[in-house]
Amino acid sequence: MQKSISLKDTAMRLQDIDFPLQALLAAPLQGVFVISGLLDDAAKRRNLHQEISNAFYTLKRNQRWRYVVLLSDSIDVSLSLYPLLPVIRLSPPSKSEIADIVSNFLLESQRDLNNELQRQLVQAFSGMPYGEIDVVLRQMLSKVSEGALMPSFALGYKREKLKGRGITLPAGPDIDRVAGMDELDKTMDKIRLLFQPEAEARGRRPPKAVLLWGIPGTGKSLAAKLSAKRIGGAMVAADWNSLVGQSVQESMANINHLLDLVDSSGTCVLFFDEFEKAFHGWDSGVQGGVLGKMAGRLLSWMQDHTSDVVMIATINRLNLLPAEMIRRFEYVHFFGSIHAGALHEVFKVHLDKHFKYNFSFKEWQILLREYRGCTPAEVAKAVQHVADDLYFRDVQSGDFTPELPQLELAMLTAERRTFTPASSQREISDQIAEIQNMAEYAKPVCGPDQSDFAVIEQPLMGIPNSGGTQKTKRAV
Ligand SMILES: Nc1ncnc2c1ncn2[C@@H]1O[C@H](COP(=O)(O)OP(=O)(O)O)[C@@H](O)[C@H]1O
Ligand SMILES: [Mg+2]
């Protein structure tokens, strides 16, 4: 009894002091002492390594039985401390361990959850440590009465928590397929199959990294989001700028945390949107070269990891990536201007969502000619505007019904005259040219135009169409 009171007192006193190690050495106590947070302060405490090494030798000389455990998020221990301070990495529980925790919890709390909801719950908990899973399960007991809402509660918690560390779990895409991009589709299907257990039997494994390169609005982010759905995995998006912390140590802890999280998430896409940001100033040595260290950590993970994680990065400018990084991507696709057949597919996907329509072949030809050079995002936006206008018109005239409205071609062609496509801007057309010039690095997202709309194309602004066309038989 006496002992436990003195320990508690000491714990309280140690919490408030600047030098817990010295205080501990001075206190007449024996036992196991756990100090958390001390290693995280390394950036602020210049002599920390000295303090630790002094403490080690004092403890060693001393007759008392004491054992000190330092807890930290980061494993950035200097080389000189390695022999004194063995590092034990605690990984979050694996998926099957989480599945056990969840089923025990359901049994104890007498709740029933079907297999699919249990699977979603396990997915939501992946990457979280044991203690945290326990806390969230307990919160769920009091806050969620319906079993069907449990996975979204856990996911909501995880989203909030990760946001603070530069990680988001993106919402699903606005449409369910990347239209008109047959070559990209083949690659994605290959990747999906490489995630199947059969692949392993042949010694095949999923690619570690895929790069989607092209001008804005061409569907890169959409393709990345859909690929997660396609392979049946989670999607973890990282924002490089938010991963950079106040100190080198904090930044490294953030990137390590991110990589641990994806490594323990089972089948998963690690998504870096606009990845060139990661390399802006990476070799400049700012902030103690933190950007270079982070990039180095990511590079070695890209090479070494064996988990079922495919990293998908999107990028506007390829020349901003260092060559050793480009080499790490096993598949590189470029998104350029799309041919008429692909544009037709993109239109259909978006029109089907908003309208009833019945265009003749001739009308399609007019539409595709008018929208030539537009990106899929510009098509999506134009369709959206026309849908909004029709809704507005019907509400104002009192003709509103919830049915999809009938679309006339003239509405879309009129909308086309309200904007200038990005491809006609100098900066963007330069980027398209650059993409074409470096195309040997990458595969186009669409092959030759096999559709009835394939025409003998005039080069756009002197730049050949990225997909080429069947009729011109241009090599792609
Ligand atoms: N291939 C496509 N098929 C259908 N819609 C597309 C396609 N590509 C882009 N879009 C539309 O454009 C929007 C913006 O695309 P996004 O993926 O964000 O472009 P990027 O990342 O290349 O800038 C998408 O949300 C979607 O509505
Ligand atoms: Mg994008």
- Backbone structural class: alpha/beta
State mean pLDDT (0 to 100 scale): 84
Into which percentage range does the β-strand content fall?
5-15%
The assigned CATH architecture of the largest domain is 3-Layer(aba) Sandwich
Strand order of the largest sheet: 3-5-6-7-4-8-9
User: What's the total number of strands?
Assistant: 9
Rg computed from alpha carbons, rounded to a whole number of angstroms: 28 Å
Bound molecules: adenosine-5'-diphosphate, magnesium ion
CATH C-level category of the largest domain = Alpha Beta
Count helical runs: 19
- N-to-C span: 80 Å
Main sheet attributes: strand count, strand direction, barrel closure: 7 strands, mixed
Topology pattern, helix = H, strand = E? HHEHEHHHHEHHEHEHHEHEHEHHHHHE
The CATH homologous superfamily of the largest domain corresponds to P-loop containing nucleotide triphosphate hydrolases
CATH topology annotation of the largest domain: Rossmann fold
Helix share, percent: 40-55%
Tell me the overall shape: elongated
Can you tell me the residue ranges where pLDDT is under 50 for at least 5 consecutive residues?
1-5, 461-476
Domain count: the total is 4
